[in-house]
Write a structure and sequence with these properties.
The complex is a heterodimer of chains A (about 260) and B (about 625).
Chain A (H helix, E strand, L loop, with lengths): L1 H20 L3 E4 L4 H13 L8 E4 L6 H13 L4 E4 L2 H5 L8 H20 L3 E3 L16 E4 L27 E4 L7 H11 L14 E2 L12 E2 L5 H10 L15 H7 L4
Parallel strand pairs in A: 1-2, 1-4, 2-3, 4-6
Antiparallel strand pairs in A: 5-6, 7-8
Chain B lengths: L8 E9 L5 H11 L7 H12 L13 H6 L6 E7 L2 E7 L7 H9 L3 E7 L6 H13 L3 E7 L8 H16 L7 E4 L23 H7 L13 E2 L2 E3 L6 E5 L4 E3 L3 E5 L3 E9 L9 E3 L3 E6 L10 E3 L6 E12 L5 E2 L3 E6 L2 E14 L6 E3 L3 E2 L4 E14 L10 E6 L2 E11 L5 H12 L8 H8 L4 E7 L5 H14 L4 E4 L1 H5 L8 H4 L2 H17 L3 E5 L7 H12 L4 E7 L11 E4 L4 H14 L18
Parallel strand pairs in B: 1-3, 1-4, 4-5, 5-6, 25-27, 25-28, 26-27, 28-29
Antiparallel strand pairs in B: 2-3, 7-15, 8-9, 9-14, 10-13, 11-12, 11-15, 12-14, 16-22, 16-24, 17-21, 18-19, 18-23, 19-20, 19-22, 23-24
Helix pairs in contact in B: 4-5, 8-14, 10-15, 13-14
The chains are: A alpha/beta (about 260), B alpha/beta (about 625).
């Protein structure tokens, strides 16, 4: 438990730094386990309040239970929810059969870029974790994006001790990653410790499968698992050697490096 | 061999060393041999290698970027995780190429322990030394040295011992002592997770055992309290002061002193969300929030401590710095200094020497510090800063410099530099600590008056219209319903200063001290004090600095008047040059008072002004 409190203290510090330095700050919430823990940490940092809007980039292909859960928590926790959608691309018929990277770029990356541009957010808090996937392992806590939202991973700014990059030229923005040091197990351990409400798609409801990572319905497949409680999930993760995102189609080949360089979350 | 016990703690470890000495390979091997790789990861990378017609390397497991794999080097630090014997390790693989030194430093600055690699065939190289020196500078005290590629030197003991001797001598010059030297072959797995049969002459621990022996950072909780104020929140009825405890511990009822403002109050509650029962104490490492028994005005950047162990306060200190900026650091240039949560403009007062990390030779007389160089220098800040020496307090004894938009350098504070305000600052501190207060608080007065106390100080040469402007401003403020008072130096000379000889009255130091103490009393009554530096003649620069120190933390709004273009004193807020339109000048000063939060925005009706705390 001590290790969870250490992670919590670090994340809370980062969230408070973000809130102090960015006038136009927002947090991305996908309703998955990670960004929900992030949301919970914001309530920790700000003593029950969430003093910035939560953004959801809706691809229209999300699993319906996720939208219900989103609206319920937004009501109960009095969240300022802002939903963005790349309506143009959807109207033009964009879907995953046009290629997964193409579809993710249009509906998620570009959907996010449009939302950031329209609202003029200069700081965006995201729940990415270093252990999820190789390029995320190389992120900074405060990571600049250029005018096009692109990530220049070849030339990242130094990050020393608890001092983060909080100044940036006009037109650019900073991505803030308070969960970088958390692992998948830590997330579940913390959900248990704090009793955080989560979507039951992560649990097996009798058919011997559950989702380990949530995304769009057509591109996310459940894994074989009989984990029916959070304890079961933690126990399962201690023994598994299967990658967390193995059910996520966009990760195939160099998908994530290409997507993230162009501003994917 | 996969570890499945529950972790009790996290430990951050960085792997450093010269380029190509095998850091990523060591890491890949460690994960493979402890069963920490996801299924199929090894096979996937092996398949990619085969497809591209190159030999598989363990390093490819973590060099995620295409470019890294193509060039066979690590560009940026990667965090990876594995569990071993009840501990969760976050391993930071730092790049060894000198071009990516800033990435190495970013990685090492997060670490609690380090593994430094040296290639047995190549021996101690440039970055081996630089990284060793920087670990010490960054405060990473526990580290082990791994001599890699022993297979390429026939596993010879004499080669290993030669490197150990040479490198120990180098480290000894700055008193760094590694916990262990370990001969390994990361490629073949010798002495990584498993003991090697090939080097029977070595009986020490493996790399994995060495990681297990690293201890969690020494208990900073046992040190005196240091709580840098991160922010002050008022989301609901609670006014919560937040921050991460850098050292020591605190509990409800503790008497806190905030430096440099010298404000004091007792902790009423420790606030937390979803923790039952509500906590009553906190210790080093925790991000906490407290409420105080008195509503005092404290700001981000101040350091809360107990009265017995206060941090240093000055406008100057000496430091060891490493520079990572794209353009060189220059003597005389201005930078933004960040110490703990304080941000303040500073200037490089002098560069004492550049340290060559290859042989620790020193070069003097330079006016610039180039990228990737280390230097000893003195920094001078625009306003007083609370800090500690790095030797006693790590977190409040280090800093970064921001050049334009980027963090461009970092360093540790080695020495307090006494500035000319030290005597007065000490007087102010002793006086504030013993200050007897009535029932009416500063905030009560502010609420009642609709403004905060402040000093408007008009500086400038002779016959520039300072007195005239001061009178005009006082009149305007009072007409607007403000509580303002013109403090004229003449009135002090014949009264309070009557005991001084003519010669003593000519000495700025004592005159300014008396003047400042009177202004301090007036600001305590909640007044806006309007004044000029007329009594000090041309010594107005020195006098205004003394007044500033004595009335601190009440804001001083400095207005400089001159007939011609001239350099105003430091920290001037409003500059008026040439023939002055006094109505416009008054309006300008009122604007500045609003901007600084002294005046509420609405005038006339019941004041709506509220302190930000």
């Amino acid at each position: 438990m001590k290790h969870l409190r250490q992670l919590e203290d670090q994340s809370v510090y980062i969230l408070r730094e973000a809130y102090k330095h960015f006038d136009n700050l927002a947090m991305l919430w996908s309703m998955g386990k990670d960004s929900t823990v992030l949301l919970w940490l914001a309530r920790k940092a700000f003593f029950g309040h969430v003093p910035f809007p939560l953004l959801h980039v809706d691809t229209s292909y999300k699993i319906p239970a996720m939208i219900e859960y989103r609206d319920r928590l937004a009501r109960e926790w009095r969240l300022n929810l802002v939903v963005g959608q790349n309506k143009e691309a959807l109207a033009a018929g964009m879907n995953y059969t046009m290629g997964r990277v193409v579809c993710c770029t249009a509906l998620k990356t570009n959907g996010l870029k449009q939302l950031l541009e329209n609202k003029g957010y200069t700081g965006v808090i995201l729940g990415v974790r270093a252990d999820e996937e190789g390029t995320r392992a190389k992120e900074r806590y405060f990571s600049p994006r250029d005018k096009h939202g692109d990530w220049d991973f070849r030339d990242q700014p130094p990050e020393l001790w608890d001092q983060y990059k909080t100044t940036f030229p006009p037109g650019t923005h900073i991505r803030i990653h308070p969960l970088l040091d958390w692992t998948e197990i830590n997330i579940w351990e913390y959900i248990k410790l704090e009793n955080i409400p989560f979507i039951d798609l992560y649990l097996d409801k009798g058919d011997g499968t559950r989702y380990r990572s949530l995304g769009c319905a057509p591109c996310t497949t459940p894994i074989k698992s009989t984990a029916k409680t959070v304890d079961d999930i933690i126990e399962e993760l201690r023994h598994t050697t299967v990658a967390e995102r193995s059910g996520r189609a966009q990760d195939e080949g160099r998908g994530m490096e290409l997507l993230r360089k162009d501003g994917y979350m | 061999m996969k570890e499945t016990t529950k972790p009790s703690e996290n430990l951050n470890i960085v792997i450093v060393g010269h380029v190509d000495h095998g850091k990523s390979t060591l890491l890949g091997r460690l994960y493979a041999d402890t069963g920490s790789l996801p299924d199929g990861k090894l096979e996937k990378v092996q398949a990619i290698c085969k497809q591209q017609g190159k030999e598989f390397e363990y390093a490819f497991l973590f060099d995620a970027f295409l470019e890294e794999q193509e060039q066979g080097i690590t560009i940026d630090t990667a965090r990876t995780f594995f569990m071993w014997k009840g501990r969760q390790y976050i391993i930071i693989d730092a790049p060894g190429h000198k071009e990516f030194l800033k990435n190495m430093i970013s990685g090492a600055a997060r670490a609690e322990a380090a593994v430094l690699l040296i290639d047995a065939l190549e021996g101690v190289r440039e970055q081996s030394k630089k990284h060793g020196y920087l670990l010490s500078l960054l405060g990473v005290r526990q580290f082990a040295v791994v001599v890699n590629k022993m297979d390429l030197v026939g596993y010879r003991q004499d080669v290993f011992e030669g490197i150990e001797k040479e490198y120990r001598e180098f480290l000894g010059q700055f008193k760094a002592v590694p916990s262990q030297f370990i001969p390994v072959s990361a490629k073949l797995g010798d002495n990584i997770a498993n003991r090697s049969e090939t080097m029977p002459w070595y009986s020490g621990p493996t790399v994995l055992e060495t990681l297990g022996a690293f201890s969690k950072e020494a208990a900073r909780s046992e040190q005196p309290l240091r709580l840098p104020v991160q922010d002050v929140y008022k989301f609901d009825a609670r006014r919560i002061i937040t921050g991460r405890i850098a050292a020591g511990r605190l509990k409800v009822g503790d008497h806190l002193v905030f430096s440099p403002s010298n404000k004091r109050a007792n902790i009423r509650t420790v606030e937390a969300f979803n923790i039952e029962p509500q906590p009553t104490e906190g210790h080093a490492g925790q991000s906490i929030g407290v409420t105080l028994d008195e509503q005092i005005f404290v700001e981000r950047g101040e350091i809360a401590s107990h009265q017995e162990h206060l941090p240093s306060v000055s406008t100057a200190f000496r430091a060891n710095l490493f520079w990572l900026g794209k353009r060189p650091l220059e003597k005389g240039r201005k930078y933004l200094l960040r110490v703990a949560t304080k941000e303040v403009d500073c200037e490089v007062a002098s560069i004492h020497r550049i340290i060559d990390t290859m042989d620790l030779a020193q070069q003097q007389g330079s006016n610039t510090v180039n990228k990737n160089q280390v230097a000893e220098l003195t920094l001078r800040t625009k306003a007083p800063v609370a800090f500690d020496l790095s030797a006693s307090f790590e977190a409040t004894g280090r800093f970064v410099l921001v050049d334009e938009y980027d963090i461009a350098g970092g360093g540790i504070i080695t020495e307090l530099v006494h500035d000319d305000q030290e005597f007065l600052r000490e007087e102010a501190r002793r006086r504030d600590f013993a200050w007897v207060k009535g029932e009416v608080t500063v905030e009560d007065r502010a609420q009642q008056y609709g403004h905060r106390a402040a000093v408007v100080l008009i500086t400038g040469g002779r016959h520039t219209g300072k007195s005239f402007l001061a009178r005009k401003l006082e009149g305007r403020l009072v007409a607007d319903g403000r509580h303002a008072y013109l403090l004229d130096g003449e009135n002090l000379r014949r009264g309070l200063d009557a005991d001084l000889s003519e010669e003593e009255r000519g000495q700025t130091t004592e005159m300014a001290r008396r003047y400042g103490e009177v202004a301090r009393l007036l600001t305590d009554t909640g007044l806006i004090v309007v004044s000029t530096t007329n009594p000090f003649g041309l010594a107005y620069r020195e006098a205004s600095q003394a007044i500033r120190t004595l009335v601190h933390p009440a804001p001083v709004i400095a207005v400089h008047m001159s007939k011609t273009e001239e350099e105003p004193p430091p920290n001037t807020d409003v500059v008026l040059t040439g023939p002055t339109d006094f109505d416009a000048a008054t309006a300008k000063i009122l604007e500045e008072l609003k901007r600084r939060g002294v005046l509420a925005q609405a005038i006339g009706a019941k004041p709506i002004f509220q302190y930000s705390i």
